[in-house]
Amino acid sequence: MRVLGIEGTAWAASAALHDTERDETFIESDPYEPDSGGIHPREAAEHMSEAIPSVVETVLDHAEQTAEGDEAPIDAVAFSRGPGLGPCLRIVGTAARALAGALDVPLVGVNHMVAHLEIGRHESGFDSPVCLNASGANAHLLGYHNGRYRVLGETMDTGVGNAIDKFTRHVGWTHPGGPKVEQAAADGEYIDLPYTVKGMDFSFSGIMSAAKQAYDDGETVEDICFSLQEHVFGMLTEVAERALSLTGTDELVLGGGVGQNARLREMLASMCEERGAAFYAPDPRFLRDNAGMIAVLGAKMYAAGDTIEIEDSAIDPNYRPDQVPVTWRGAAESVARAVDADADVKGAEATVEFHDEEVVKRRLPKAYRHPELDARLRRERTVAEARLTSEARRAGVPTPLVRDIDRREATITLQRVGEMDLAATLDADAVASVGEHLAALHAAGIVHGDPTTRNVRVDGDRTFLIDFGLGFHTGHVEDHAMDLHVFEQSIEGTAAEPEPLLEAFEAGYAAAGDDEVLARLRSVESRGRYR
Ligand SMILES: C[C@@H](O)[C@H](NC(=O)OP(=O)(O)OC[C@H]1O[C@@H](n2cnc3c(N)ncnc32)[C@H](O)[C@@H]1O)C(=O)O
Ligand SMILES: Nc1ncnc2c1ncn2[C@@H]1O[C@H](COP(=O)(O)OP(=O)(O)OP(=O)(O)O)[C@@H](O)[C@H]1O
Ligand SMILES: [Fe+2]
Questions:
Q1: Do 3 and 16 form a contact (C-beta atoms < 8 A)?
Q2: Any idea which positions bind ATP (predicted)?
């Protein structure tokens, strides 16, 4: 089967031919390069209308030349329906419809972010990996579960590439900034910058303002670029590790243009090696926006009968990966769900050693992180965990007693509580009690920071909150809403039927908590989604 793909969501005017029998992909691309500033939607769309016809022409010629015997040069046309810039998407959509009509072949509408994921799965041969998409306009973790790609974690503000590009605009460099940051980083040294991870979500606004400020204050641009990479990619690697740990998956694939960065790939490879997981990063030609990935996924969709009629083929600038019915994969392929037996466990962050009455939790150094950042995070989190675990108990929230803390070794000894993790026994009453605990915690001005189903221990009808290492003091509604969002995401990522559990949780929170927080939760949810 031979599928022609067209891509043009933002900057890459690209066409490709994917031949499934030969497993070959021919790609022809023409990038839009702004003279100054970032991507201007109108200029980008003008570029698309000029460049798309000629890249398509080249691929059509290639298809004619390589078709053998009575083989059809093209069996279907696939195109990026979204997400992306509306004016660009419209031009690509029109071109694809016209081409499918002229060739009299079916049309396939592809989600660009799912294509970034699927190309890694295709090339690696992995069964059911977690995927980190690190692209310009997006940054998220996806895992397949019961017919959909679930968003396990995502940026709460901008995409990772856009964040980096904004910094480089501030220092007067042309678009795209990513490769220039990578080059400058080679001559830089470490400086401290903000680091923001909340469960498996993360945000870049704090670190980006700090980076601009550091530049205005006279820090060298090389040091800032080096440190940006260490912090930003450290965050992405940490959340990728959390996703592997939470789902129990041992395969990771990388997607998106920022994946071309060698330091990011090095960190992910190191993290995976340390935990015995397999890691795959596609070639750069398949990482940056390209029509090859559209043709490859288009072929899988076409083979599954997943084509669309012209009248249903409207583009969608906000098309989310979790909206896509995954027709080309079997239901049995869901990512595993980890349920721990109480043997000694290796969490995402720490190792936990069990004794009769106590557990010893050690935050071991992470080889992927810069040593200074590593030492800082291990120290800060150990201190926060010891302090907030005790403060939460004083606020009436069940938590383990803290028996001992060794700051230098980043080790805490805690009372052993509960019989199992909430993940192993997801029932509505237990989930409702977590809602009540979080409400009490928030009323005391504390957020947990990482309230997942594995950070709750269950003992009969009692539940205990553990793992306060990402917690902090705050009275902000926004921070409280993030706690609820993180918990709900962990339910959605692991429960077969999340709806009744989410309802129970919110009812538990509403009984003791602030309505404003629940209202803000709704806006956090809509905000974190792919703009
Ligand atoms: C929706 C779609 O239009 C969008 N596409 C997109 O963002 O292009 P992509 O090719 O995946 O990524 C481009 C980004 O990738 C960054 N980038 C490229 N090379 C880089 C490098 N060596 N290091 C860091 N960032 C790099 C660029 O600075 C830019 O921000 C997306 O996938 O989010
Ligand atoms: N006080 C405790 N009593 C009983 N079990 C515990 C206790 N603390 C931790 N555990 C067990 O160890 C596991 C890992 O602990 P914890 O979440 O604190 O470590 P972590 O490395 O931060 O994990 P993650 O980052 O994956 O949440 C928990 O899911 C739980 O099963
Ligand atoms: Fe992209």
A1: no
A2: 344-352, 361
